[in-house]
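We now fix the convention by which a protein and its fold are recorded. Here is one such record, which you should read through line by line:

>
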Amino acid sequence: MEGLVLIVVIGATILAGGAIAGRLRIAEPLLLLVLGAALGFAPRLSGVVLPPDVVLLLFLPALLYWESLNISLREIRSNLRAISFLAVGLVFATSFVVALIGEAFGLSWPVALVLGAVLAPTDATAVVSVVGRLPRRTLTILRTESLINDGTALVLYSIAVADAVSGSPIRPGSAALRFVLSYGVGAAIGLAVGFAAVGVRRLLRGDRLLNSTLSALTPYVAYLPAFAAGVSGVVAVVTCGVTLSQLGPKVITASMRAQSFGFWQLTTYLLNGALFVLIGLELHHVAGGLGSGWARTVGLGLLCAAAVIGVRLAWNNTTPYLIRMLDRRPSQRLRRQGFRERLPLGWAGFRGAISLAAALALPVRAADGRIIEGRSVVIAVTFTVILVTLVVQGLTMPAVVRWADLPPDPRELDEELLAEQATLESVLEALPGTAARIGSPDSAVEALRGAYERMLGRIHREEGSPQLARRDETAFDQESALRLALLPVKREALFALRDQGLIDDVVLRRVQARLDLDELRLSDTVEQE
């Protein structure tokens, strides 16, 4: 009964918080955290504690999977160096700076390093919820970094925890080997699960419910073997998601995609909101464990919050100049950005539930039975940093984005127009053969040819709009069967552009969504006829 009450309370809080945040135009995660903290004063909710296993095994795989399905592999490749610097280099830099601060405040080095690893990763769900509208390149870097840096930080965290529990010093060679194996084996597991999921989808092609069930299971099937093997489950889930983002569109039907999209959109929204409500509820438990040293602990938390913000800003404004010194290729010069353009990337360093779950997962006792000193300090400092980053950076992020005045990606519209142009050209070429195959009358063929030629004539990639290519299409319901039969031709042309690198996954998904709507509408029309 208590569990059901908590679920209803969290759901109602998400509903109210979402409505209020929209009206007040503030970051929804921040408001949900505040509402959760307010709910913690209720007697029946004051003892709620966020179990770390729930976050790491239930919430994390689903949230990472959905985000990885919606990023662009081409943009990841073209920005791989910047992403690697942030997801690996910045994680290590932040971890060691925070560890030095923690050691100066009296924590043992292993526990201080645990604190550094806990506070190093940004929160993928918070970043996406707060940053708002950004150009494609910046958004891809942020989203991919926030997915991958969890894996880097959790590997470093496991090494530091092993040191704290066993008392044996960290060996750099074995730690580096473990890091490489964790990434490599995790990626291999993710690839294997991704290809297996595609194979199973081909077998279940006609069953929407079973395909949706498979979609819900996939992130956990990727995460659990990696977790059991002691390698990065984060990397496994992200690799699996990216694999399916490339192969899935070719085996998933429009109706399945629509159902799956609705499921994941609602699921991730509820999971994301529930996490921040639970973090707010956790405040009372954390505050109760501070004791008489609360002022010193809060001071350490504020200093660590300043450190994680400062290190990220310093990293984003020093490493680009180092790269410029080493890489002077003309193609790289075109990608250079100034301080103003880099600021949103440097300011989006929110910490969230992953950090708190890792802090709570720190064991109470070492292998020899002694109590690990500083565990309550790690938890309290982590909560303080989460709160500060969400308040300070979350409230100011919209203003930072406006001040940066980032121009839209000039290639994105051109790629979308190219996709529209290529799909129309492909159906015009395939129109006679397809019409003969399904027995369409000549009048229908000529009417449809004229419609497609007019739409193609309206596309001017230097000044046009993709909507113009679709204005007349709904006027030809009498050719529904023929247009429905031509949709696979459009999709093949679309996949060919993506595979050739002429458009990215974001553009493919956008155009594919329009084709899916056409297919669902035309299917209903054909069935009625």
